[in-house]
Task: inverse folding
């Protein structure tokens, strides 16, 4: 039987598996990615790409390409509307710029969010992975099982096109194979939480006249329209900004609506419609009981499932991939400590719990505005009612569409790798992001004098920022060299940067999160580095935190 040797085996080539392949390839780690399908996107979903995810793409080298070829028309405003119906009254509008203009309004990131349909974004991730040396993508390939020992993982493969069977030997296996994960089931890791909190029906369809109808009715382009008075509260999302749309509506468990009839009823006026694909789906609020079993790890939907309310799905999974990716690389390259891989669960599981709960809360608020025929009235009372309702919608739903705090402000406060200091932790605000170098958080973005972002400094190895214009006298360099830890020292004499970063010295991890900070150098920088790379003893951890 044929055998293939690699360092990491990735099961699943959705956005999370492809993100992990990009991160590992970027870090110089060989990986094999297997995917049962041919890579075709069967249903468009998850088009909201967070600023933080775009920052990862920036590091991998193709964020500009993603924005330039997003799949939406140029200057297509990404407005979200709430109306009584498709042909009714506008109740509220959340205005948003186009993909091209988004980076210009978000000062806290060099990127800004992106709206890109899944059939465009996933192939972009695939192209990025295929361009990486050492990344081996294998579509139409099924992993039928695996076994692990203290030395590695052996997995059985079947080429679904030829029927050939072979084995892959790897140091680690990463499950990116979704809600029905074969790996998770074989490991007997259960989801914890609430399944089937609600049932829905989604249709991907073509309607060449719908965009023009909405623009005439509401006076602006709409990326998304939520209806309040229409039965089952359908909402429409532009798939390509031209003639392709996705409609989703609430149904009862077991219902099997006719797709064409459902669309016609939701639109309310005759127009040509072509259904591409329809499917029922259910919203969940679950997180895997654990993220690691030996040499196997769970990521993305294999680790957490949520409502598609707020864009937390693929973005949370890609965050998993980046966190695990640099830690696998450090371990395989020999400078990661024995506790480094265990920290993946400590850091990412709390983020998943936070995000699945937030998505479920957004879904609850979906029905907070009850249907009312009076919304469609023409008199002064109806106008007053609509104005009052507009204020209520903005108060209740803004949280779903303004998520900078979630995107950029999450912190690994429970991480064993971060030397938390005595300073007051910044507030964990869902909507508002407060830049900070509080350990565990993302190092803030600022433009440097040479035109780079501070984020462009991070990616491979650790970076020590010296922000008071003075060097670290070689202390950190010597400790890093002693341990074989990649470390680069960057010295700046920018008062604005020093103020933003709050301390004179800030140690940043490969993923751009802060590991340690201080106004003076620690007595033994080795203790800090050992903590940050997962090699700290109890005593070293105490010394690093006290530094």
Result:
């Amino acid at each position: 039987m044929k055998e293939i040797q690699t360092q990491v085996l990735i099961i699943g080539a959705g956005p999370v598996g492809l993100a992990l392949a990009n991160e590992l390839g970027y870090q110089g780690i060989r990986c094999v990615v297997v995917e049962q399908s041919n890579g075709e996107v069967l249903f468009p979903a998850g088009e909201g790409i967070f600023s933080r995810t775009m920052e990862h793409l920036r590091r991998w080298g193709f964020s500009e390409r993603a924005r330039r070829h997003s799949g939406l028309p140029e200057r297509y405003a990404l407005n979200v509307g709430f109306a009584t119906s498709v042909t009714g009254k506008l109740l509220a509008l959340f205005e948003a710029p186009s993909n091209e203009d988004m980076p210009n309004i978000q000062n806290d990131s060099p990127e800004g969010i992106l709206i890109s349909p899944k059939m465009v974004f996933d192939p972009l991730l695939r192209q990025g992975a295929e361009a990486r040396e050492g990344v081996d993508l294998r579509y139409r390939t099924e992993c039928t099982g695996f076994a692990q020992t203290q030395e590695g993982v052996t997995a059985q493969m079947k080429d679904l096109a030829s029927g050939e069977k072979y084995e892959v030997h790897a140091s680690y296996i990463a499950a990116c194979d979704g809600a029905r994960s074969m790996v998770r089931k074989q490991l007997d890791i259960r989801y914890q939480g609430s399944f089937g909190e609600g049932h829905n029906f989604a249709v991907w369809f073509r309607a060449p006249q719908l965009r023009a109808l909405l623009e005439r009715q509401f006076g602006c382009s709409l990326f998304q329209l939520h209806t309040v008075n229409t039965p089952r509260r359908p909402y429409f999302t532009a798939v390509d900004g031209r003639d392709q749309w996705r409609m989703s509506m609430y149904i009862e468990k077991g219902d099997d609506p006719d797709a064409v009839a459902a669309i016609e009823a939701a639109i309310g006026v005759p127009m040509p419609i072509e259904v591409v694909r329809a499917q029922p789906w259910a919203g969940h609020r679950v997180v895997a009981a654990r993220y690691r079993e030996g040499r196997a790890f769970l990521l993305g939907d294999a680790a957490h499932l949520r409502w598609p309310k707020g864009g937390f799905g693929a973005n949370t999974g890609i965050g998993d991939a980046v966190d695990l990716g640099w830690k696998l690389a450090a371990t395989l390259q020999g400078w990661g400590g024995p506790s480094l891989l265990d920290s993946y669960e400590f850091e990412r599981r709390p983020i998943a719990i936070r995000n699945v709960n937030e998505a479920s809360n957004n879904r609850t608020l979906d029905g907070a505005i009850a249907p009312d025929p009076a919304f469609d009235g023409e008199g002064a009372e109806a106008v007053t009612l609509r104005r009052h309702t507009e204020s209520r919608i903005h108060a209740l739903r803004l949280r779903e569409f303004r998520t900078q705090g979630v995107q950029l402000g999450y912190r690994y406060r429970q991480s064993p790798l971060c030397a938390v200091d005595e300073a007051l932790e910044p507030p964990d605000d869902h909507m508002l992001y407060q830049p900070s170098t509080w350990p565990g958080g993302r190092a803030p973005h600022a433009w440097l004098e040479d035109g780079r972002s501070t984020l462009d400094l991070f990616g491979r190895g650790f970076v020590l920022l010296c922000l008071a214009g003075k060097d670290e006298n070689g202390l950190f360099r010597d400790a890093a060299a002693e341990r074989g830890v990649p470390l680069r020292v960057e010295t700046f004499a920018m008062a604005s940067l020093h103020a933003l970063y709050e301390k004179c010295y800030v140690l940043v991890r490969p993923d751009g999160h802060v590991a340690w900070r201080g106004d003076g150098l620690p007595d033994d920088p080795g203790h800090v580095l050992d903590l940050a790379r997962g090699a700290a003893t109890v005593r070293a951890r105490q010394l690093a935190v006290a530094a």
